[in-house]
Amino acid sequence: MNKTRSKVMTIANRLVKQGLTRSMATLKAWIIVKANALRTKVRGTSRRQNALEKLAGVNPADISVKLKREPRNSHDSNAVAVYAALRDNRVFFIGYLPKAVAAVLAPLMDKHAEPNTKAFRVTGGFNPYVYYGATLAITI
Q: Are 140 and 32 in contact (CB under 8 A)?
């Protein structure tokens, strides 16, 4: 129970710094921690179309997704990068988590809590003029 409460308070404190009231931040933090998964899009995929095109042709069961914290990122100190690895040891950089999601996950990752990715899916690409994208579900 202490681990859960610690996660909730860490997320709530971060949400308060973003401007939410303490009660609203605590409520949202409980929802995030108790939810089955946090579903989100991966940002920055328009620059990584070659990697996503290769991943689109692979069975999703053969793809494992890793999240890597980048505290020295010049654009966002809470940045969390998304990497997709295949069984044949090829690793592709996909993009970043959205700022709001990274702001919640970053303090937990700094405390060595490893979020798990449950589902990864390549989206789009059904037409030559439609970009590929990626979505994933994260459990905290």
A: yes
User: pLDDT tens digits, residue range 67-111?
Assistant: 999 999 999 999 999 999 999 999 999 999 998 888 888 888 988
Whole-model pTM: value is 0.79
d(CA 28, CA 120): 24
